[in-house]
Amino acid sequence: MLLEFKTSNYKSFKEELIFSLIPAPKQKGLDYSVLKQDINKKSYKGLCSAVIYGSNASGKTNIIGAMDTFKSIVLRGNIRNDDDKNDPNTAACELELIPNNLSENRDPVSFFIKFITDNYLIEYSFSVDLGKFLEVDYSRKILSEQLKINDRLIFERNGELKFDSLDTISTLLVNAFEQNADSAIALAQGNLNDEELFLMNGFKNMFSSKLVQIISNWLDNKFMVIYRADSMHLIRKFSEPKKESVYVEKTLNEAAVYFGISSNALGYVVEGDSNEAKLCSIFKGDKKGTAIPAELFESYGTIRFINMFPLVVNALMNGGTLVVDEFDASIHPMALMNIINIFHNDEINRNHAQLVFNTHNPIFLNANLYRRDEIKFVERDEDTHYSSHYSLSDFGTTGKSGVRKNEDYMKNYFVDRYGAIKDIDFTPIFEELISRGKEV
């Protein structure tokens, strides 16, 4: 369960961005869609969903990109560039794209995350010097790094490496650690690498591979960040698949029928010696059936839904946090509202799954669908070009700017009560074009 994510100097977010899924205080009458977890007799709460609004180029996608970049850096364990040319989030691979492009100084880039998994409250952060924007050959350096477990500091790196409460993770330490603690600490302190995260290297190898595995598993399998959802294509793999076989999944086809597909089935076709399967439309014209690539027959919205639905299932069944860039593009709002309501349904969402996405569709600005603290905004300053982020709950409920539960959020948004909206008028461009045409 994700509780909080922070970053600073990440692209348009020059100042610190705090993206919180911790319920805001004093939200009376809004007891729904709150996840609860007890750890060591202390109770923690998290929101099960959030929707992000803002005009084009405001920085909405940069929030999701920052999460994806953080995840990528941690899992590979260093701040060197990656050679993955297929990643739609180029900044996760080419880190010189991260610093704010208008900054004249070499300001640090920082990341922080707070989440719960396997009955542990985990807080991990690091800051790095990546140089200026597009400074490719700059000698990068990790400036600080910190790990807390259940509110207790485990280690802190800030020029030098210090350890605190290793007793908190005593059951997760490597075998015979107590006998070798002093030498392990001395070795770790003397072998820090400026470009490598201590968590994923020295700490993993000498202190607790079990704890790092818990953190890595959550990042890799439960923190599902989909950057540029329009470029996502789900590839299914089968162990020892039969050649020229068609695999039809019952759950996926049932969902497709509810979505509106009724004239054919959907399945995955394995061709040749590959264990990868391609999504196809299956027609039952004869006993064998005919399969053609889905993109040749299905609509773009249908393919997007079919690619996305297994991720929704995965999140709900395994307690994952699904973060998607423009989750709603080309998918009917009624289908999305139902998915959102499922995440809000305590009877179904038993594993503390979460759904976060950005959108331009105002239909989700609905007090019957989202709590005030689940509605987020991103606005970009026209003078500094820096992005800022805030929630509807930040307006409070009293005074002239207060927002109450029975208000029309959509109407208020379009009359610019909440910001994060821009008046756009292309008329002058066409007036000039027409004027030029008359002259010609």
From TrEMBL:
<dbReference type="GO" id="GO:0016887">
    <property type="term" value="F:ATP hydrolysis activity"/>
</dbReference>
<protein>
    <submittedName>
        <fullName>Abortive phage infection protein</fullName>
    </submittedName>
</protein>
<dbReference type="GO" id="GO:0005524">
    <property type="term" value="F:ATP binding"/>
</dbReference>
<dbReference type="Pfam" id="PF13304">
    <property type="entry name" value="AAA_21"/>
</dbReference>
<feature type="domain" description="ATPase AAA-type core">
    <location>
        <begin position="50"/>
        <end position="365"/>
    </location>
</feature>
<dbReference type="InterPro" id="IPR027417">
    <property type="entry name" value="P-loop_NTPase"/>
</dbReference>
<dbReference type="InterPro" id="IPR003959">
    <property type="entry name" value="ATPase_AAA_core"/>
</dbReference>
